[in-house]
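Lecture 7, part 2: worked example. A protein chain together with flavin-adenine dinucleotide.
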Amino acid sequence: MNDEKCGFRDSLWQATAAEEAHYPPLGENREADVVVVGGGFTGLSSALHLSELGKSVVLLEAREIAWGASGRNGGQVNPGWKMMPSETEAHYGRDRGRRISRLIDGACDLVFDLIDRHKIDCAPRRVPYFRAAYGARGIDEVEQWVHEWGAMGAPVRLKNESETHQLMGSTFFHGGMEDARGGSVQPLSYCRGLARAAAQAGAKLFAQSEVSGIERAKSGWRVTTGKGVKVNARFLIIATNGYTGGLWPGLKRQVVPLASLQAATFPLPEKVLRTLLPQGHHLSDSRRMMIYCRIDETGRFQIGGRGSLFSPARQQADTRHLQAEACKIFPQLKDVKWEFEWGGLIAATRHHVPHLIELDKKAYAGLGYHGRGVAMGTMMGKQLAELIAGEDVAMPREELSPFAFYPFRNIGVAWHMFSGRLMDKYM
Ligand SMILES: Cc1cc2nc3c(=O)[nH]c(=O)nc-3n(C[C@H](O)[C@H](O)[C@H](O)COP(=O)(O)OP(=O)(O)OC[C@H]3O[C@@H](n4cnc5c(N)ncnc54)[C@H](O)[C@@H]3O)c2cc1C
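Predicted complex, written out as structure tokens:
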């Protein structure tokens, strides 16, 4: 895996994004109510909401704003999270579970409200999310989703096999479900827009300012950048997700970083565009090794999925398996040329749901979105801000619980992918 060589610069989003404002490196010592480490959706949303709540904020990003997964993802604003509402209640208890499900229910709205309120130029589209079902297991899953989220009043609808074929322009899947809470954005532009909104609200954002040390100070926390410049703050937020390093003992082992890859075609010819996802849905599917795809505002087909981030032979992300999969699902793509391939790191957690972790007194981390961080990362940032402002938030404050077998994670990931592919084929 080599994330430096095949990520941020190679993406479709770099070619089509709104321009970035300049954020300088931290040049002198500062004081703030809150210091935030990481300039993606989580960190920026927390900075924005904290500033709106009247707190002074310094945000430090190691590279440039949106450099992590937030500037590279599929741009799908996905509703829900991995657990069904009943599983959420079983896991967290009935009352807490219900609160969490209601919070998650509003996560997509939060993204589109922020875009509206701060006039973020990021090609927002509120076309339903589609979950394509493969086989009997997939049909069970979408039926349960519609049953449970529908009971909570969510705008969800099952689609039978022929409706699915029609809305996808493909006969590959066996049914599915439409969830109108979802939508899509140009993710790099959305992230840059969040940064602009946070800065306008008063947050001080610094790029090229990698945090190299965190220590307790009289007033709260003192973080030091690689250049020896310091920020003293009463509260600390770590928002480094799949790029979490050794800053805080045990935090790196809380999540397993996984490579997620993307490929995008040249703009599609009109005759192909007419036949492929003709109603504008963005989708993912129910297989264990699922793909997700959509057509962006420039008419490019874009697909994402798992894989190895770096092919040493090609010196770039290797997405040939995704391109082949795209042509298998949508045969109309077989003569189309691919223009972009890139990748980044997501963060997997034990129960496949995000964690808000209380690291210590007045020190928090929010991470582990399992590839659903556009809506959930934005929501987590807001929850962190409200928690620091003294509100009683829905996300539970958890303790650090690092993976015991972290040193063997790559073996676990390889096994998971191998067995997932086998089960997708035969079960
Ligand atoms: C290829 C790909 C496709 C995806 N597709 C989707 C999708 O379609 N829909 C969806 O909802 N989610 C998707 N995701 C997941 C989503 O992008 C992430 O969950 C989300 O961006 C996480 O945001 P974040 O702010 O928590 O972390 P990140 O955006 O990863 O930001 C973490 C930041 O922390 C910085 N950092 C790390 N260490 C330090 C330090 N010591 N000092 C200062 N800064 C530091 C990093 O440089 C980085 O910029 C995808 C992810 C990838 C990689």
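The longest helix spans residues 409-426. The chain has a mean pLDDT of 92. Keep this in mind for problem set question 3.
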